[in-house]
Write a structure and sequence with these properties.
elongated; about 25% strand; 4 helices; 3-stranded antiparallel beta sheet; 9 strands
């Protein structure tokens, strides 16, 4: 029995709720995509932070300085600490990320993308948090993955929004890895 949802023209296979849970894929991969950065990258970030801190302090006081250095700390941690590997599993009923279950029924759509040499399987959800689940995929046939998931979730790549286009434009013109 197939039922068509109002938010999607692609019907979902509702008979999966009557079937026992079947694991399509399971793998072990990093928590997030990671790209090691050079020493020059971190020096560039620190120098930019010093410049912005001076400007922020003159215009607004000490609070912007705290914010800027908190962001510098976050950048340092994200780009210097290699992420741990966790277990991922995709079934006909759930998406399991390190033992945490997300129902496949609340996923609007999915797509496959690349970032920093890693393949990402992205699920879009209607809930505010998490609005998007990004799973690092390793050693899995992307076409088979897409074929299996399309039975339950529509495959539809998201068009880049203003923030995505601005970040892409900025990263092409301002390379911090000089």
């Amino acid at each position: 029995m197939k039922l068509e949802f109002m938010d999607s023209s692609v019907p979902r296979d509702m008979s999966s709720t009557l079937k026992p849970e079947e694991t399509f894929f399971s793998w072990r991969a990093p928590v997030r995509p990671f790209k090691a950065r050079s020493r020059n990258f971190f020096w560039t970030v620190v120098l930019l932070a010093i410049l912005l801190s001076i400007i922020g302090f003159v215009l607004e006081g000490i609070m912007p300085v705290f914010l800027i250095w908190a962001i510098v700390f976050l950048v340092f941690v994200l780009f210097s600490v290699k992420p741990e590997d966790i277990d991922y599993e995709v079934t006909n009923k759930h998406i399991l990320i390190a033992g945490k279950k997300y129902s496949i029924e609340v996923v609007r759509r999915f797509w496959i993308t690349e970032r920093w040499g890693h393949t990402l399987l992205v699920f879009d959800t209607p809930v505010r948090f998490p609005g998007r689940l990004e799973l690092v995929v390793r050693d899995i046939d992307k076409d088979l993955l897409k074929k299996k998931l399309e039975r339950f979730i529509p495959y539809e790549e998201e068009a880049p929004n203003f923030a995505d286009r601005a970040a892409s434009w900025l990263s092409k013109r301002l390379s911090l890895d000089a």
